[in-house]
TrEMBL record:
GO cellular component, one term: cytosol
Protein role: One of the essential components for the initiation of protein synthesis. Protects formylmethionyl-tRNA from spontaneous hydrolysis and promotes its binding to the 30S ribosomal subunits. Also involved in the hydrolysis of GTP during the formation of the 70S ribosomal complex.
Tr-type G domain ranges (all copies): 190-359
Homology family: Belongs to the TRAFAC class translation factor GTPase superfamily. Classic translation factor GTPase family. IF-2 subfamily.
GO MF annotations in UniProt: GTP binding; GTPase activity; translation initiation factor activity
Disordered as annotated region, ranges: 57-102
SUPFAM superfamilies in UniProt: Initiation factor IF2/eIF5b, domain 3 (SSF52156), P-loop containing nucleoside triphosphate hydrolases (SSF52540), Translation proteins (SSF50447)
Location relative to the cell: Cytoplasm
Name of the protein in its database record: Translation initiation factor IF-2
Lineage: Bacteria, Bacillati, Bacillota, Bacilli, Bacillales
Binding site residues for GTP: 199-206, 245-249, 299-302
InterPro entries: EF-G-like_DII (IPR053905), IF2_II (IPR044145), IF2_N (IPR006847), P-loop_NTPase (IPR027417), Small_GTP-bd (IPR005225), T_Tr_GTP-bd_dom (IPR000795), TF_IF2_bacterial-like (IPR000178), TIF_IF2 (IPR015760)
Length: 689
């Protein structure tokens, strides 16, 4: 029947689950967590504490209100109820007059979520089910004890008993977070840190990961064949540390964009002979956006040109200041190649972990994140999971992302079969009915039926969401979201052709002041908009502004699938105006630029009288004679203007379609090079509904 869980009861009473759990403890009632059910007897006792006093306080007022509204509201309810009853009943009868029964002694108000059966309603009202059935019959509704009642009928019955009724917000059963338990402080124990290694290309991320693993795992484990499962765990001074195997910030943020925060500490590898490079800065911004502490590994110290001071100096610009210089960032100098300084690094990781007080409850429900997953010919769906809380066991019914199953077998990072694993441990499982995605959450359920039900519901929901075109923040609906208090910060990622304009634009954007809404620049960079920018935007609910730059193809695709709003500009004040207008709800979307196609310059002909003719190939869409055109070189817009002539062989043409060659000259621009891309665009009026 309508058993109440701890968290539900807490919600009804507007107090925390923890308070209820503590209260139950005082009452010597044992509950394991906030999902535990409360027996009716216990509920009555709790009501004594939480409901009674409130009722006393409100009783007089309520009674007054009820008296006052009685005639009116009953009339309304009856009408409302009548419609529903009529709808439900083929042989409808006029709704009989309902009489106001005398109010029961103890219940003046009930609440319910979703729906109630006749029996459940009877229980809530403290009545016999037969009494309710009789009332329903009087209303012309034939119902059995286990039949669900609709909202209007519930209201009608309750009003007949003079009881107020309130429908609670529906619980979204498909939301996995809903099953994640709040752990009690005393259940929590220390857990190993989960570390991701980031840094610029070739600064030594992979070498460092290998070096740590080889010195710490294979050596100690006799005959241990390490298995690639997306993460591994080592021990330093007896304490475990988990490393995610995919280095780089893109993987890190793509997980985060799926709602999974798995990394506790980021190691930023900077080669001592190369210093801070563009991807170093990206990695810093990604780690900062995720609010993850950063340890700097100054690598390649064995190299001749190693200059750790320069690295430290350069990083001060990003507020990563060594302790010696009065900051609080940990720097470790090492050589990943020679295995030097690795122990220091591990020690520092454990130190940061200690400060962060990373904890988990091994007794809790097992939850965590998919690190990677694939379809294996022999074993079916294979997923590497990082357990983040609780203990995962072979045989557990589990929902993973939009798939489900039962954990058939588990293998750890040393290739050994294991029966159970605790928090911060990576493990590879089989037994899922489909392949989940990296970054998906998993939750273990008590019974397989429930897991299946939730898994299937999530699958269904995913299909609907895909259809429903749910977008992230876009400038168009920004104002709406600000108005409704959904947004306090507007996050922006800024890519520009040169550092100077990126800085100037960032500085001006930050100055926009609209009703306490803050502009937050989470990343700026120079060059084309890349997929990793879009992923960061998606994870941080940000808008991407491109100043004189364009997204590359992967970024375009990612922006489309992630529904990230990308705004391209050539004039600083226009970019600022647009954001400001959007924040004030004055965005003027009457005309919108539409890119109609792209052509690639394959050959150049210099003709003295005409200038440069670009022998081009339309790779995408079409180009038209009257369209505007931009010249893009290496992702950067170098010219915007008009097409002068558009020819197919010797003939002037109005348009050239995809996969055709053409000759193009531009008005007032002749510095065209092979490999340049012409982007054709038109201004289109937007129909507002
Ligand atoms: N001398 C020296 N070379 C190193 C060190 N660490 C890495 N290298 C070398 O630097 C090169 C790049 O190292 P990787 O570990 O592949 O760098 P990465 O950051 O993983 O590079 P990507 O995977 O391309 O992003 C390799 O040739 C390594 O041998 C070091 O401590 N000293």
């Amino acid at each position: 029947m309508a058993k109440v869980r701890v968290y539900e009861y807490a919600k009804q009473q507007n107090v925390s689950s923890k308070e209820i759990i503590n209260k139950l403890k005082e009452m010597d009632v044992e509950v394991s967590n906030h999902m535990s059910t409360i027996t009716d007897q216990v509920k009555v006792k709790l009501d004594e504490i939480y409901v009674k006093p409130k009722q006393e306080a409100h009783k007089i007022e309520q009674e007054k209100a009820i008296q006052k509204n009685k005639s009116q509201s009953n009339k309304n309810r009856r009408n409302k109820g009548k419609q529903k009853v009529d709808n439900k009943q083929a042989k409808s009868q006029p709704a009989p007059k309902t009489s106001i029964a005398k109010k029961t002694e103890d219940v003046t108000m009930i609440s319910y979520a979703n729906t109630l059966t006749v029996g459940e309603l009877a229980e809530k009202l403290g009545k016999d089910a037969s009494e309710i059935i009789k009332k329903l019959m009087a209303l012309g509704v034939m119902a059995t004890k286990n039949q669900d009642l609709d909202d209007d009928t519930i209201e009608l019955i309750c009003s007949d008993f003079g009881i107020e009724v309130e429908k609670e917000e529906e619980v979204d059963e498909t939301d996995l977070n809903h099953y994640i338990e709040a752990d009690l402080e005393e259940q929590l124990i220390e857990r190993p840190p989960v570390v991701t290694i980031m840094g610029h290309v070739d600064h030594g991320k992979t070498t460092l990961l290998d070096s740590i693993r080889h010195t710490k795992v294979t050596a100690g484990e006799a005959g241990g064949i390490t298995q690639h499962i997306g993460a591994y765990q080592i021990k330093s001074n007896g304490k475990p540390i988990t490393f995610l195997d995919t280095p780089g910030h893109a993987a890190f943020t793509s997980m985060r964009s799926r709602g999974a925060q798995v990394t506790d500490i980021a190691i930023l590898v900077v080669a001592a002979d190369d210093g801070v490079m563009p991807q170093t800065v990206e990695a810093i911004n990604h780690a900062k956006a995720a609010d993850v502490p950063i340890i700097i590994a100054v690598n390649k110290m064995d190299k001749e040109g190693a200059n750790p001071d320069r690295v430290m100096q350069e990083l001060t610009e990003y507020e990563l200041i060594p302790e010696d210089w009065g900051g609080n960032t940990i720097f470790v100098q090492l050589s990943a190649l020679q295995g030097e300084g690795i122990d220091d690094l591990l020690e520092m990781i454990l130190l940061v972990a200690e400060v962060e007080e990373l904890k988990a409850n091994p007794e809790g429900r097992a939850v965590g994140t998919v690190i990677e997953a694939e379809l294996d010919k022999g074993r079916g769906s294979v997923a590497s999971l990082l357990v983040q809380n609780g203990t995962l066991r072979v045989g557990d019914p589990i929902v993973v992302g939009n798939t489900f199953g039962r954990v058939r077998a588990m293998v750890n990072d040393l290739g050994r079969r294991v029966k159970k694993v605790g928090p911060s441990t990576p493990v590879e499982i089989t037994g899922l009915n489909e392949v989940p995605q990296a970054g998906d959450r998993f939750v273990v359920f008590e019974d397989e039926k429930k897991a299946r039900q939730i898994g299937e519901a999530r699958q269904q929901k995913q299909i609907e969401v895909r259809r429903g075109d749910q977008s992230k923040v876009s400038l168009e609906d920004l104002f709406e979201q600000i108005k409704q208090g959904e947004i306090k910060d507007i996050n922006i990622i800024l890519k520009a052709d040169v550092q100077g304009s990126a800085e100037a634009l960032a500085a001006s954007l930050k100055k926009i002041d609209v009703e306490g809404v803050k502009v937050n620049i989470i990343h700026t960079g120079v060059g084309a908009i890349k997929e990793s920018d879009i992923i960061l935007a998606s994870a941080s609910n940000a808008i991407v502004i491109g100043f004189n730059v364009r997204p590359d193809n992967n970024a375009k695709k990612a922006a489309e699938s992630e529904k990230v709003d990308v705004r391209l500009h050539r004039i600083i004040y226009k970019a600022i105006e647009e954001i400001e207008a959007a924040m004030k709800g004055m965005l003027d979307p009457e005309f919108e630029e539409k890119v109609i196609g792209q052509a690639e310059v394959r050959e150049i002909f210099k003709v003295s009288k005409i200038g440069t003719i670009a022998g081009s190939y339309v790779t995408d869409g079409k180009l038209t004679r009257d369209a505007g055109v931009r010249v893009i070189r290496d992702g950067v817009v170098i010219f915007e203007g008009e097409i002068d002539t558009l020819k197919r062989f010797k003939d002037d043409v109005k348009e050239v379609a995809q996969n055709y060659e053409c000759g193009i000259t531009l008005e007032n621009f002749h510095d065209i090079k092979v490999g340049d891309v012409f982007e054709g665009f038109v201004m289109e009026e937007i129909k507002r509904s």
